[in-house]
Amino acid sequence: MPADAIVEVKQIGKVYESGVEALAGIDLALPQGRLSTLLGPSGCGKTTLLKIIAGLIPPSRGEVWVKGKKVDGPGPERAFVFQDFALLPWANVLRNVAFGLELRGLPEHERYEIARQHIAEVGLTTFESSYPHQLSGGMRQRVGLARALTVDADIILMDEPFSSVDEQTRRKFQEELLDLLRHKSKTVIFVTHSIEEAAYLSDQIFLLSPRPGTVSRIIKPNIAREGSSPDEIRRDKNYLDTVDEIWQILKRYV
Amino acid sequence: MILFGKRIPIFFSLVIWFFIWEIAGRAKLSSIVPPVSAVIAAGITILPTAKFSAAALISLRSFALGMALALLVGIPIGVLMARVASLGKILGLWVNIFVSAPISALVPILMALIGIGENTVVVTVFLFAVFVIILDTQVGMKQADRSLVEMARCFGATRRQLYTKVLFLSALPEILAGVRLGVIRGVKGVVIGQLLIAIIGVGELFELYSQHFLMEEFWALVIIVFTFAFAVSEAVAYFERRVEYYASSR
After folding, report:
1. ipTM for the complex?
2. Whole-angstrom Cα distance, residue B71 to residue B75?
3. I want to staple B194 with a disulfide (CB 3.0 to 4.6 A). Which of A81, A131, B146, B201 is the partner?
4. Rounded to the nearest 10 degrees, how much is the dihedral formed by the CA atoms of B28, B33, B34, B40?
5. How far is A36 from A9, CA to CA, in rounded Å?
6. A155 within some domain
């Protein structure tokens, strides 16, 4: 295990009540301040693995360690961004973003002040008092991201956050995410089934094989992102090689 | 409503029916159908009487007490049945039997058990209203968005916060639908309970008017009770509509 791993997954296995084996013998070491991706075909248990790290689902075997502590449930050092946004439909953007702090019992003016900063970061200041059903999918996910940033967790877990967003919004969102994370030392664990998305965003990619999910390969794209425009990254040789390398492995599972 | 290309207020259909009623009454087609004008006149004379206000007061009190009990018992039981699987199975069958059962058949037994008085009416209202409230609350809690629950747990919600800040609000549209149906049934409970007992409240008045063949007063009372039931149910429906904007986006 590398010394700077903030999250360590040790021999995680998961068997569902139905008897289906979703994950077997997963080992991961996630370095601090990096974006790591769990990539695999649907049904490889990548979302299950993410929810085990989040403490939402107990594993059948193995352990997850976060910042030197064994995980036995959700914790304040981890925040989750959901595939279906999971916004409270009866609460406006401001209250949704501040919800994590509301649960922690922070007084209203304090939590709204913090929430407003993060709403500004994701560019939704003018929609502060809008309700989720008034927002587009992309805007809803910005709210989800702002909510995760507001609780100031070290680790952000993202479960296919852009999968229900159209392609243009998705690309813009990916760029903004990289931009946003560059200035914060957050550790991100990102689940996706998109090869391009994984190659574009990640410092480290864990390729999972389908049922039961195991880590079949670890890929480090090694793309020079500093000072490159998004289009330059997408034309970068390392980026294209990574996409190709992943595809060569994944197409065996299709 | 649109008639001959013109917008006409909904209550206009009431006017048409009252008009037909008036003609039928004046034609003396049946001795139990007096003209509507006479019924309204009778209504205006009975409304300020002490006898009516005493009857209305006792009926409203039974209704309010029975409904309060039904809400206080029904909503928590519905919540528990949704969240505790074994309890849902044990009680589910009974709730489903009672929600469709003709509760009026039980009123004579209640009279024997509790006595001939206001308490029996309160229990009748309770039994009429409680089962549909339980059932709808259970459905609402079961349908509560699973990912909202995961989200709340993820951000460190306590059990109490999970119920008060997520589950209850998430189930509110179904709970309110149950309350509205419960209120409508509760009004039936008051009238049927008092009719069967026949010595208190509005039931006593109904009995009095029909025995002495005071058809104008009888119909006036029917209209008053109908209006009350409609008004209460509309009041709940108003709250339902206010929460609907988010219910539709779930």
Report:
1. 0.85
2. 6
3. B201
4. -150
5. 13
6. no
Is residue A93 in a domain?
no
Residue A142, strand partner residues = none
Q: Do B249 and A78 touch (CB under 8 A)?
A: no
Give counts: helices (H), strands (E), chain B: 11, 2
Give me the residue from B153, B165, B245 closest to A74, CB to CB.
B153
Which pLDDT score, from 0 to 100, does residue A147 have? 92
Contact check, Cβ <8 Å, A86/B145: yes
Is the Cβ pair A151, B155 closer than 8 Å?
A: yes
B10 burial class (0-12, 13-18, 19+ CB within 10 angstroms)?
A: exposed
Question: Which residue in chain B is spatially nearest to A83 when comparing CA positions?
Answer: B147
| Angle, alpha carbons A84-A89-A94 (nearest 5°) | 100
- DSSP-derived secondary structure letter, B144: S
A131 to B245: CB separation less than 8 angstroms, yes or no: yes
**Closest by Cβ to A103, choosing from B148, B155, B169:** B155
Put simply, the answer to whether B156 touches A84 (Cβ < 8 Å) is: no
pLDDT of residue A40: 84
Q: How far apart are CA B30 and CA B24, in angstroms?
A: 8
Which residue in the set B148, B165, B246 is minimally distant from A86, CB to CB? B148
Residue with tokens 């956050």, as numbered in its chain: A161
B166–A151 C-beta distance less than 8 A: no
Using the beta-carbon criterion (under 8 Å), do A86 and B151 form an inter-chain contact?
yes
Check: CB of residue A216 under 8 Å from CB of residue A209: yes
Residue A211, domain extent: 1-71+186-254
Q: How far apart are CA B69 and CA B74, in angstroms?
A: 8
On whether the CB atoms of residues A37 and A250 are closer than 8 A, the answer is no
Among B147, B155, B250, whose Cβ lies nearest the Cβ of A99?
B155
Check if the beta carbon of residue B195 is closer than 8 Å to that of residue B62.
no
pLDDT above 80 for A2: no
- Pick the residue of B147, B154, B172, B246 with the most A CBs within 10 A to test the interface with A by mutation: B154
Helix (H) or strand (E) holding A97: helix A93-97
Specify the pTM: 0.77
Domain count, chain A: 1
DSSP letter assigned to residue A9: E
Q: How many CB atoms lie within 10 A of CB B203?
A: 23
In a domain, A19, yes or no: yes
Q: Within a domain: residue A150?
A: no
Above 60 in pLDDT, residue A44?
A: yes
Q: Is A58 on the interface with B (CB under 8 A)?
A: no
Q: Is B228 exposed, middle or buried (0-12, 13-18, 19+ CB in 10 A)?
A: middle
Q: For chain A, what's the residue count?
A: 254
